[in-house]
Specification:
Layout: H1 2-5, E1 11-17, H2 24-32, E2 40-46, H3 53-63, E3 67-71, H4 77-86, E4 92-95, H5 106-117, E5 121-128, H6 133-142, H7 145-148, H8 152-155, E6 160-161, E7 166-171, H9 172-178, H10 189-199, E8 204-214, H11 220-240, H12 247-265, H13 274-290, H14 298-318
Parallel strand pairs: 1-2, 1-4, 2-3, 5-8
Antiparallel strand pairs: 4-7, 5-7, 6-8
Helix pairs in contact: 6-14, 11-14, 12-13, 12-14, 13-14
Length: 330
């Protein structure tokens, strides 16, 4: 732990990007604006893109010697992360995404938390920020216990050991020890890495003072695909690490299966309609509570919540290996 207590270690930020031309410049600017006494280098792993991301990343690197571009021909998030990690050498590795912005003081606070706690990975709150009305509804859904099950990086809570965090700030030696990110997992690779870190005796630490923004999906179709992929890759993670299963991950597929079963058999057994009716009542109550501060959001919020629940559950229950067309977009 002494390497983090004595002075301020250099930091490498690793950022996998694909089709992030709208957000990349702001994401890099938020990192460059961090007030930190040590050196910060930004390693952007660029996947093949269709919106000019590659050209933009090259311009940023040409104008800023702290920015380096690393090719990520496979396009997947874990491959990009591993390529960026391999191209860097600082004792602290900060994960960032091309559509997120780190909060002011994020890196300095994270390094201090690493030193104070002895953890191998620290992280904070995912703060979804929507621009369109639908994105704003998804942002509320992603920050609610009804929508996400109550993981601290979604809803907040006291600092302390957790099973996973958003993004993450890592001790490099711990990353190398466990083999970094599993490139077979296009989704859920961060959770799976944290499972391996904890199994190796390391600690994953949540610090509510850390936060980073997140841009939600813009429509129902992309939201459904996102959560379907989340669920499907969660099943793969559970197949490898069955003891990592949490109660919050069991509830959605059980509830959604009961609701779907109730709809199917209700023509023959009228009481079966109680299951979908109960879910609808819970959805209505949650929507009223979570959307009480924003007028006109309730229908979109209910749609977002139901889409997240049923898409994630379908992905988890169907399982199997898939290829994601979204590549590095998380």
């Amino acid at each position: 732990m002494s390497e983090y207590v004595l002075g301020t270690p250099d930091v490498d930020v690793v950022m996998p990007v694909r089709d992030e031309a709208r957000h990349l410049e702001a994401a890099v600017a938020a990192i460059s604006a961090q007030e930190y006494a040590g050196a910060i280098r930004i390693h952007v792993a660029v996947a093949p893109s269709t919106d000019g991301t590659e050209a933009l990343a090259a311009r940023l690197a040409a104008s800023d010697p702290t920015v380096a571009v690393i090719p990520n021909p496979s396009g997947s998030t874990p491959a990009g992360l591993n390529a960026a990690i391999a191209s860097s050498s600082a004792p602290v590795v900060v994960r960032a995404d091309g559509h997120c912005q780190l909060s002011p003081g994020y890196i300095a606070r994270a390094v201090e938390t690493l030193a104070r706690t002895g953890a191998a990975n620290v992280g904070g709150i995912q703060r979804p920020v929507g621009v369109t009305p639908f994105e704003q509804a998804v942002a509320v859904a992603m920050s609610s216990r009804f929508g996400t099950g109550g993981a601290r990086f979604h809803v907040g809570g006291p600092q302390g050991p957790v099973d996973t965090v958003y993004l993450g700030v890592f001790r490099r030696h711990a990353l190398v020890e466990v083999g970094a990110f599993d490139e077979r997992l296009v989704r859920n690779q961060d959770y799976e890495l944290n499972v391996r870190l904890r199994a190796a005796g390391h600690e994953v630490w949540f610090d509510p003072e850390l936060w980073a923004t997140y841009r939600p999906r813009p429509d129902i179709g992309s939201l459904a695909r996102q959560y379907f992929h989340y669920g499907r890759y969660k099943r793969q993670v559970l197949a490898r690490h069955p003891r990592s299963l949490k109660l919050r991950q069991i509830v959605p597929p059980v509830v959604c299966t009961v609701v779907f079963g109730g709809l199917v058999v209700s023509p023959w057994r009228r009481r079966a309609v109680l299951a979908p009716a109960g879910y609808l009542a819970a959805l209505t109550a949650a929507t009223a509570i979570e959307g009480r501060w924003q007028r006109g959001i309730r229908l979109r919020l209910a749609t977002a919540l139901a889409t997240m629940h049923f898409s994630w559950s379908a992905g988890l229950l169907l399982g199997g290996s898939i290829r994601s067309s979204e590549g590095a977009r998380t």
